[in-house]
Design goal:
Largest sheet: 7 strands, antiparallel
Strand order of the largest sheet: 9-8-5-7-6-12-11
CATH architecture of one domain: 3-Layer(aba) Sandwich
Helix content: 40-55%
Distance between the termini: 48 Å
Number of strands: 16
Oligomer: single chain
Radius of gyration: 28 Å
Strand content: 15-25%
CATH class of one domain: Alpha Beta
């Protein structure tokens, strides 16, 4: 991710636009290649050496922010660690004890004698004692792992990171989608759920409009919701026929950020597998252990048609021992109007299969503002209780 000091944007006439890098530019490709090679060639080397070579590659030209941004992304793909025979703090403790006993010698001979004595006491060699003495300092930590990538991939990653850095400051975002392959659409909604993005989806002109808007309680907690929107962005890049409009708060002013396929953003992150939030993973494990005999839980998103062309995408399907089915939607972030609308749908619409809402209380949103809570809506704090879900499923089936 790019930090705000590395962000390059232009603001004009109420719009904000990142200054994307031309991935076909020869200089950009050459710089990216040089930076990648530094990390590739210095596995197992101290960070101080890598920092020095990176600084030389970046230079001090007017465009140094670009190259520093590329370097930041490479550091994010790196893991540095301590390479020492023993924990450095233990080595320092023994060396300092022997140094004090020897009168804190300043000459090379006396210093070496201290290291020899400390090494013998620690049962390591003198060189290992000297190297490990300050091995935990940042510039002496060694590059243990680097997730390799091609220079062109780095340039694409940089442009995506610019767009994400703008979305950090987003208050709300609207996505317009053309008709999509069902599997890609399912993965997109899984990512929305995974990042706990409160969204409202409706059909329009054969496609979908997804409105993502955070509750006020989230905005009061800083930019956490904008960060979630930014993390979600790569999932959208796997689709075709999409457009994003986001409201960005920048220096106490509001700007429009527009994004679509024309910017040519690409992600190397594969659209594969299912992303499961921690509480959902626990729920699946507990359901298998505690659900009534013959009940089955399946992670399967269903599209529920609502009024005003809106749709609801569920997360699970539960089958009872009699073969009856109920769908579950896990609601992470919410505000009272959002939840009231869903409760109204539960009251007014005859869903087939019935729908149960499982709502997180992590935001401490005012539940007391709800005049009435239907039986097929339950709350959870951290852990989704299987017993409550079973009761809600039975209630939903009785009302169906």
């Amino acid at each position: 991710m790019l930090t705000s000091d590395l962000l390059r944007v232009k603001r004009r006439k109420g719009k904000i636009t990142p200054r994307y890098l031309d991935v076909d530019d020869d200089e950009a490709r050459a710089r990216a290649t040089a930076l990648v090679e530094i990390f590739e060639a210095h596995r197992g080397k101290p960070r101080g050496i890598i920092d020095e070579k990176v600084e030389r590659a970046i230079g001090h030209g007017t465009d140094f922010l670009i190259w520093r941004g590329l370097a930041k992304l490479l550091y994010d793909r790196s893991e540095f660690g301590v390479d020492a025979a023993l924990k450095p703090e233990k080595i320092r403790e023994v060396v300092f004890e022997y140094a004090v006993a020897a009168g804190n010698p300043t000459d090379e001979e006396g210093r070496q004698a201290v290291l020899d004595d400390a090494a013998e006491a620690l049962e390591i060699d003198a060189h290992g004692c000297e190297v490990g003495l300050y091995a935990d300092l940042e510039d002496r930590q060694v590059l243990e792992e680097f997730k390799a990538l091609e220079p062109l991939e780095l340039l694409h990653r940089y442009n995506v990171a610019l767009a994400q850095a703008v979305l950090y400051r987003a208050r709300k975002m609207t996505i317009r989608l053309e008709a999509q392959d069902s599997n890609k659409l399912r993965l997109l909604f899984q990512m929305l759920k995974f990042h706990r993005l409160m969204h409202r989806t409706r059909r329009e002109d054969g496609g979908y409009i997804i409105a993502i808007e955070g509750p006020e309680s989230i905005f009061k907690r800083g930019r956490k919701y904008g960060v979630q929107m930014a993390k979600f962005l790569p999932a959208l890049l796997h689709l075709s026929g999409w457009k994003v409009d986001a409201e960005i708060e920048w220096d106490s002013k509001s700007y429009l950020f527009e994004l679509d396929e024309e910017q040519g953003l690409k992600t190397a992150r594969r659209a594969r597998g299912q992303w499961i939030a921690e509480e959902e993973e626990w729920f699946e494990q507990r359901f298998e252990e505690k659900a009534p005999e013959g009940w089955k839980l399946e992670r399967r998103g269903g599209v529920v048609e609502l009024s005003n062309n809106e749709v609801l995408i569920t997360d699970y399907a539960i089958q009872t021992e009699d073969g009856d089915e109920v769908w579950l939607e896990i609601v992470g972030f919410w505000r009272i109007e959002y939840l009231r609308r869903r409760i109204q749908w539960l009251d007014e619409m005859d869903f087939d299969p019935p729908v149960v809402l499982v709502v997180s209380e992590r935001l401490k949103t005012d539940r007391k503002a709800l005049e009435e809570t239907p039986a097929q809506l339950i709350f959870f704090k951290g852990v989704i209780l299987v017993g409550k879900v079973v009761d809600a499923v039975r209630a939903a089936l009785n009302e169906a």
